[in-house]
Amino acid sequence: MLNSSFWRPLSLPFALVFMLIVSDAVQAQVDAGPPSGPLFRCVQSDDHVTVYCDQSEVLRYNLTAPKAPEGIDPRYQRSGYIHPIYSPAGRMVSGDFAADHPHQHGLFAAWTDTRFRGKKVDFWNQLKQLGVVLHDRVIAVGGEGERTEFSVAVRHYAIDEDGVREAILDDVWTVGVSGVTGEDVSAEDQKGPRYVIQFSTDQTNITEHPLTINEYHYGGIGFRGNNAWYSAPSAKALAAFVKQPQADAPPLELARHRFLTSQGHDRRLGNHSRPEWTTLFGIVDQTQGQNHIAGVKMTPSPLNEQYPDPVRLHPTKPYFSISPCVVGAFDIGPGQTYRARYDFEVFDGTP
User: How do the domains of the chain map onto residue ranges?
Assistant: First the structure.
């Protein structure tokens, strides 16, 4: 307990100082007026948690499984991922149900090569039916302000030979969204605003057995870019590029998308590197012969255990994964929690 005889002589001056501080703070708020920047808000429906910037949609978290497009196996349907994601100019930067890799869903979480109770579990490749990640529950949905956030949980399930699911990881996502004014990104988008998505994953093993994440070349947190960033001609050109160390990258008009890391590397040298940031950007649309470009920049938190986190940059497709398993196997033991934090900055123009 605090000594009242010590505090009594200071009580009056302290009270006056405290009142002055509070008064100054209140006056500062009045002088500042209403928020000068855009307002962000979360809206929950039966199927989604959607984040808006004023009246513009920023992103959508899928509480239920979107229907697969015609021609895509419905077994690729799943819930518990973020898509679409839009730039401040309203250009979509994420992709879903891409014809070449329909199991890649916007911003998603899935380990690929794991072992649980002596059996292989693959949460990434849905068609193998060895594992799956699905939405479980909404924890909190924030209100309106210069920053908003929501928290949800997805569960990572093993699937046995009879099709029975067993929940292994309870994965809590906290997704915060705000805006920043970036540096000049192009002649037409000078000082263009950017969205910042602060994404955290807390994966807790809720079983009595360890889950082993094997060393593997991809898996973890995945990001699939706009479906228009892939085509057969672009894949052919990029496949030739990555095989020739001295070759120049194909023009963006052909490749449709491009990677760039903090080390100045593209997909050829950036794959399995450990950069401080990674960008993926591409041509979203075109008007009057002018290409409109948008993209996303991923920055890992210095608090992550494997910082700077290794990245998998696909040689021909517009997707990357943040993959600590690249540098070695590790376990998530019973009751243990694997934690990681990333910022995804969404922009118009080139990085």
Answer: 81-125+173-348
